[in-house]
Amino acid sequence: MATTAQPTLSKRDALLGFGLAAFAAIGFSGKAILVKLAYYDPVDAVSLLALRMLFSAPFFLIVALRHAGDSSASRLRGKDYLAVLLLGLLGYYLSSLFDFIGLQYISAGLERLILFLYPTFVVLLSALLLGKAFGRKEIVALLLSYAGIAVVFFDELHVQSEHLLMGAGFVLASTLTYAAYLIGTGETVARIGASRFTAYAMLVACAATVLQFLLTHPPQALLLPKRVYELSLVMAIVSTVLPVFMLSAAIRLIGSGHASLIGSIGPVSTLVLAAVFLGEQLTMQQIGGAALVMVGVLSLTLK
User: Fold this and answer.
1) Is 105 in contact with 158 (CB distance < 8 Å)?
2) In the chain, domain spans
3) What's residue 303's pLDDT?
4) How far apart are the C-alpha atoms of 129 and 124, rounded to whole Å?
């Protein structure tokens, strides 16, 4: 009986892992849709990001307190606190801020495709800063990925040319900071654990975002329409907290490689959601460009 039950359990775990990874990818992708919907009301990027972080913070605070009360967990050293501080600012604060600013000027579909380039940035930064190997396969993957972005970018020139370059630049900066964050997380996550690191880093980003809001906005700037608060709450739960924990669970079940491959449905889901909820035009050029980006990025992910 024991030998026949194991394959069934493994298959169930695999299906659960793939499902969690897929829902996490769709949840992360939905953030762009929710941000664009919120921008229909008079709200700026800093205020909207502050609301998202404030609604997310209690969930991550609970996780952080749980780890703080765990006597079996390893004690954090000075360099661990410094790493959490710097990486939280880089990966969750700056990257999110640049992304929210960029979404004021470009479509949700283009934003997700640019963000999906982060593995190519990881390869480039690793080659430039760490001296890691960079061969013909990587060059082909980069050419395919950036050719796909160029196709989508020029397709959107006739639709929304005003501030398109600036918006794409901000999202590109978001992708770059996130890639730098990923390069720096390896040793820190291995030392203190993924769940504890994520909770602490998100709380750092929340504090930085709220501080920026307080320094640049009067308190009455939070007197926003009810709809903005509702979208921010949905963004915090559906596109921030739940995807983080679903992806973490998926990685435990099926491994990071399979989870990252399932994550490739993110750009596709964003294009579909943007067409349904935002009325963004889904053209053959966009589909072709998205296919080039995904082929290029997936060839690096498979490696």
Assistant:
1) no
2) 15-302
3) 54
4) 8
